[in-house]
Design goal:
The protein is an all-alpha fold and 116 residues long. The chain has three helices and no strands.
Length: 116
């Protein structure tokens, strides 16, 4: 848990092997709201959003890999430029191009016997 950053996973619940017909998010929200109400004694609504994702193992695996790839890309690109928004495709393309040009130039200098 990173106390400096809050993410959806900090407030998420994974239900393993729910009944096949349990696909209504509102029904789940009411269930968890009632459960939280019993545990905390609060009568007000505490669950603000409930989504259901069925059979999404491949999606989750791809999302984890994407996060790892973005972290690596951001680390590599931080050597050459400031890239504040990894979701800006044009900015990422420009940063990757600059990074590659600099690496090619460095490799050419090393191959010519010149220091970096």
């Amino acid at each position: 848990l990173d106390e400096g950053k809050t993410s959806a996973s900090d407030y998420s619940i994974l239900v393993s092997n729910p009944p096949d017909d349990a696909v209504d998010p509102e029904e789940w929200r009411e269930f968890f709201d009632g459960l939280l109400g019993e545990l905390t004694g609060e009568k007000q609504q505490q669950v603000t959003l409930c989504t259901i994702a069925l059979n999404n193992h491949r999606l989750l695996k791809n999302l984890v890999q994407r996060r790892k790839d973005l972290k690596l890309l951001k680390t590599l690109l931080s050597e050459t430029c400031e890239l504040s928004d990894m979701n800006d495709g044009a900015a990422v393309d420009a940063a990757v191009t600059l990074y590659m040009e600099q690496k090619i130039e460095q490799d050419a200098n090393v191959n010519d016997g010149q220091p970096k």
